[in-house]
Amino acid sequence: MSEEAVDYPQLKTVGFDARFPNTNQTKNCWQNYVDYWKCVSSKGEDFQPCQQFQSAYRSLCPPAWLDRWNEQREAGVFPALAEKKEAHH
């Protein structure tokens, strides 16, 4: 029986972020996800510094949250990125 080598992506633990000193990393996950999509929106997906945010949120966030947020973002209803409608008086 031959074993095939599997090429897994390199995973790294996110470094310390002084904005999130506590053990609970929920806010850190959320902020990196939002920062990534704001970065991509303003600079484009090929802008290398955006990748740091993506790497962080992929390390910190549960996949189920990312699935839900991606669905919301694609539907234009993700709270942090949804277009704000002007109020008409």
Helix fraction, binned, reads 40-55%
Give the averaged pLDDT, no decimals.
83
Share of β-strand residues? under 5%
The helix-strand sequence is HHH
Radius of gyration: 17 Å
Largest sheet: none
How many strands in all?
0
Q: Specify the number of helices.
A: 3
Question: Mind explaining what this structure looks like?
Answer:
This protein is mostly helical and 89 residues long. Helix content is 46%, strand content 0%. Residues 85-89 have low confidence and may be disordered.
Write a brief caption for the model.
With 89 residues, this protein is mostly helical. Helices cover 46% and strands 0% of the residues.
Top keywords for this entry?
3 helices, single chain, mainly alpha
